[in-house]
Automatic annotation (TrEMBL):
GO terms for molecular function: DNA binding; N-methyltransferase activity; site-specific DNA-methyltransferase (adenine-specific) activity. It comes from the Bacteria. Residues 4-130 form the N6 adenine-specific DNA methyltransferase N-terminal domain. Residues 144-455 form the DNA methylase adenine-specific domain. It catalyses: a 2'-deoxyadenosine in DNA + S-adenosyl-L-methionine = an N(6)-methyl-2'-deoxyadenosine in DNA + S-adenosyl-L-homocysteine + H(+). Belongs to the N(4)/N(6)-methyltransferase family. It is an enzyme of class 2 (transferase). Its EC number is 2.1.1.72. PROSITE patterns: N6_MTASE. Keywords: Methyltransferase, Restriction system, S-adenosyl-L-methionine, Transferase. This is site-specific DNA-methyltransferase (adenine-specific). One of its GO terms (biological process) is methylation. It comes from Candidatus Anaerobiospirillum pullistercoris. The lineage of its organism: Bacteria, Pseudomonadati, Pseudomonadota, Gammaproteobacteria, Aeromonadales.
Length: 490
């Protein structure tokens, strides 16, 4: 089947339906439909692998092949189709009984449909959408792989649907991070705000290449863990992982920041590797902050995630790679305390400075990748490296996004580290001792772009947004300091 313009063709059908309002609803509608088709293909594989396999959906005739198989004409028409979807299919999936001992990959069908809705009101249009999805044979490895490539594009479409850009981190970054945390079979890999599963899928690509035996395959299938609090990215994540052959993903539909109190986490809650891009720019209410220690609380989502990552990283050989905005690097107050805590308890060995437009068009805020691990009891030195815009690019954009090849110079530098001086006291890459960082009050904004370089790269609109973001970050530091002063004087 040809998949070019697949999403566009289905979106065009949905636009004639009065029930789907805007791209966000169309994406959500298509997501649960595709998921059911992928889940049906997964069940077919489970049936082949296990003679005793029992589908959770078969007794209620909820399998795709029972009601949406056009080849066998198992599709209702008109009001009968809408009545089945609205009053039987979705309610039944939300209220499934999951027997004790059901494998995680099979059981996730219930959670996936917790907050799913059918927006379509036109039975003819719905039938057309089902027909197009039914043509995809997800049991065919070649066809499934081909669709997997299109699925990447589908996930990028989220960047243009409301504020959904937070769900998608460019594949160039997720692949780079997964390739540089020394993943090995048997590692328990986690993303505590997993969105659509990009980091876990990149980890899959690295680990899959290491499989040689049946026992390796068993280790591989139970290696992936995620937590996501929003229903749409949660559903997309499950589809993404099942589509790519991860049959037993341990993906929790919840908010990582509220699952437990900070002090209640133990070694059994830790992971060998954490790869993630915490939601930045978000604010947390008092009840969420209260989950953390009194002196470490912050109203910024990313700050709390950094505390959680450090807490849930395995004490023996744990490795983490985390995307964070510039504000965390130079921020004071609680951010200083968090950075010190990480450097006291782990080895912050590398900070990669990224161009401001990596996440365009969602945001022009400059971002960074922090790599830290448990190879040392604490940080003694940290390397900084700045990724420059590739030749011929003034900035990244929706049509000119960052590619894996744009990080090849960083790949070459990674294993053979050396300082790269630029004159006038400026460096593209440099190692700083812990003492030097402490003297800067844990300001990690090193080896970054100069103001002149930023102004050359950014458009006027991006410059304004960049200055506004920086001003807001400084204002927050001032507010925090004032709060401390007011508290100390009663």
């Amino acid at each position: 089947m040809q998949f070019s313009n697949f999403v566009k063709r289905i979106s065009d059908i949905m636009r004639i339906d009065a029930g789907t309002n805007g791209d966000a609803q169309r994406i959500e509608q298509l997501s649960w439909i595709i998921f059911l088709k992928i889940y049906d293909a997964a069940e077919m594989n489970w049936e082949l692998e296990n003679d005793d396999f029992q589908s959770l959906l078969e007794p209620l005739h909820l399998r795709w092949r029972d009601w949406a198989d056009f080849e066998n004409d198992n599709v209702a028409i008109g009001d009968e189709l809408l009545d089945f979807v609205n009053n039987t299919l979705l309610p039944s999936l939300k209220n499934l009984t999951i027997p004790t001992g059901t494998p995680k990959g099979q059981a996730l069908i219930k959670t996936a449909f917790t907050d799913v809705h059918n927006y379509m009101k036109d039975s003819v249009a719905l039938r057309e959408v089902l027909a197009k999805v039914d043509k995809i044979d997800f049991t065919d490895p070649q066809e499934s792989h081909a669709f997997g490539e299109i699925y990447e594009t589908f996930l990028q479409e989220l960047q243009n649907a409301r504020n959904a850009g937070e769900f998608y981190t460019p594949r160039a970054l997720t692949d780079f991070m997964a390739e540089h945390v020394q993943l090995k079979l048997g590692d328990q890999v986690a993303d505590l705000a997993c969105g659509t599963g990009g980091f876990l899928n990149s980890a899959r690509r690295v680990l899959f290449s290491q499989i040689q035996t049946a026992s390796d395959s068993e280790l591989f299938s139970h290696s992936f863990h995620g937590i996501e609090k929003k229903s749409l990215p949660y559903l997309l994540c499950l589809s993404n992982l099942l589509l790519n052959g991860i049959d037993n993903p341990d993906i929790l539909y919840s908010n990582s920041l509220t699952i437990k109190n900070y002090l209640d986490y133990t070694n059994k809650d830790c992971f060998d590797v954490i790869l993630m891009n915490p939601p930045f720019g978000g604010k947390e209410k008092a009840d969420v902050q209260e989950k953390f220690l009194q002196g470490e609380r912050s109203n910024e989502t990313a700050d709390l995630f950094m505390l959680l990552i450090e807490k849930r990283l395995s004490k023996q050989g744990g490795r983490a790679a985390v995307v964070l905005p510039d504000g965390f690097l130079f921020g004071g107050g609680n951010k200083t305390m968090i950075k010190k805590k990480i450097m006291d308890n782990a080895n912050l060995h590398t900070v990669v400075r990224l161009p401001t437009s990596v996440f365009a068009p969602y945001t022009s805020i400059a971002t960074n990748i922090l790599f830290f691990d448990r190879s040392k009891p604490q940080t003694t030195e940290t390397w900084f490296y700045r990724v420059d815009m590739p030749q011929g690019y003034k900035s990244f954009s929706k049509t000119k996004h960052i590619k894996r090849e744009h990080l090849k110079d960083l790949d070459q530098w990674w294993d053979h580290r050396e300082e790269i001086a630029e004159g006038n006291g400026q460096y593209k890459a440099k190692c700083y001792t812990r003492a030097e960082i402490e003297k800067r009050n844990y300001n990690l904004a090193l080896c970054g772009y100069t103001k002149e370089q930023q102004e050359d790269l950014l458009s006027p609109a991006e410059l304004i947004a960049d200055y506004q973001a920086e001003r807001a970050q400084y204002a927050e530091q001032i507010d925090h300091t004032l709060e401390q002063i007011m508290s100390s004087i009663g």
